[in-house]
Each structure stands twice: as structure tokens, then as C-alpha cells.
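> run fold maleylacetoacetate isomerase
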Amino acid sequence: MAENRAILYAFWLSSCSWRVRAALHLKGIPYEERSIDIVKTNQQQTEQFRAINPAQKVPALVIDNVTLVESMAIVQYLEDTRPEPALTPKTPVLRARMRELVEVVVSGIQPLQNNGLQSQFPTTEQYTKFTRYWTDRGLQTLEDLLQKSAGEYCVGDQITLADLCLVPQVYNAVGRHALDISKYPTVSRLYEKLLNEKVFKETHPKVIKSKM
Ligand SMILES: N[C@@H](CCC(=O)N[C@@H](CS)C(=O)NCC(=O)O)C(=O)O
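> ok
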């Protein structure tokens, strides 16, 4: 029987999409990526896409005959249904460490720099000042937490959901917000190392863009 490939609705530059793309890659799940342009044509705002994700944001994943939204709900579903390789540490303390880092990115940085916020600011300068402030503050928090939790990866020596959140957010911080991450040595070390790993090389926004 032919296998149904998962469908990932995503945008090449979207950090939340990259989290899911990386999880699919690590777990070896075949999928097709369909681009939703959230920058030039605002395809996320169409009624057609609203039927897929009521929040009118990417990503959304169609898998196992269900449509899932919210990147962390999606990756948790993948963890629950395809547990190998595990992207969550085994012990409660390390799980908590991972979730601390995930929350800093998912709740404390990403929503406060999302491009969807721009229309709510009177000027681009005000939007930029706001997004850079919260991104930089989040990076400082990550640095402090990572100094306690990191080994080869964000939490010890196992790649986890924290790494899947860190890389796309730091990529945005450097590329979109032109922030200097050299003042965050642990963030910088992990980011450079992770960018050289197969999973992040093959799911990198530039690679996705080149295939569009
Ligand atoms: N909490 C959501 C956030 C989704 C989100 O903000 N996606 C951004 C791209 S990373 C988006 O679609 N922005 C377009 C908009 O807000 O109009 C998740 O983790 O999936």
C-alpha cells in the first residue's frame, strides 16, 4: 500500500516551520512542504488557509489523516507517535530544563518578533526597536539558562526540542534583527555547532528557498 506522505504547510523563513521541519527530518518522516507566503502575498490570511489553521499562521501539518497546528503541539505529536529517536530527555529534571529553554523561545521571543505584529505599530522603526529589545532580552535569558544545562547540545549531550527551537530563533536574531550574539558565548557555541549538523543543514531556510 502506498504510504501517505505528510504535508507541511510552511514558509521558508519561518522559525516555527523550521522547528517542525527539523523534527520531521530527525525522525525520518517523509513529507512534502507546501509554501504559504507570509511576507509578500500574506497567503496565511486567506479563508482557504484559515480552514487549515484558524490562527492563520504557519506551520500546519497534515499527518495520519489529521491536521495539526501549533509547532510544539505538532512536534509533541511526532514524539508520541514516532518515539525514535527521542527528542526529549529521560529524567524529569532534564525535561524541565528543556522546557524552560523551549518556553523562553516559544513564549518569550518568537511572538514578540513575529512579522504579523508589524501592522500594529505606527512605524517600522518602533516595530524594529520592540522586536530587537525582546529578542535580545530572550537571548540573554537563554545564555544564563544554557550555562547550566548545556553539554554538546542545549540540554546535556542529546539533541532535544530545545535545540529545534534555539537554531531557528538565533538564525532570525542574527539575520532579521542584526543582533550581535558574540556576547552570548554559550548560545553562539551551540548555534555554530548545530548549524553544521546534517539536520539543520538540510532543513535550512536557504535550502528550502532554493527548492521553491
Ligand atoms: N505558536 C505558533 C506561532 C506561529 C507563528 O507565529 N508563525 C509565524 C511564522 S514563524 C507566522 O505565521 N506569522 C504570520 C502572521 O502572524 O501573520 C506556533 O508555534 O506554531
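The domain at 92-199 is CATH 1.20.1050.10 (Glutathione S-transferase Yfyf (Class Pi); Chain A, domain 2).
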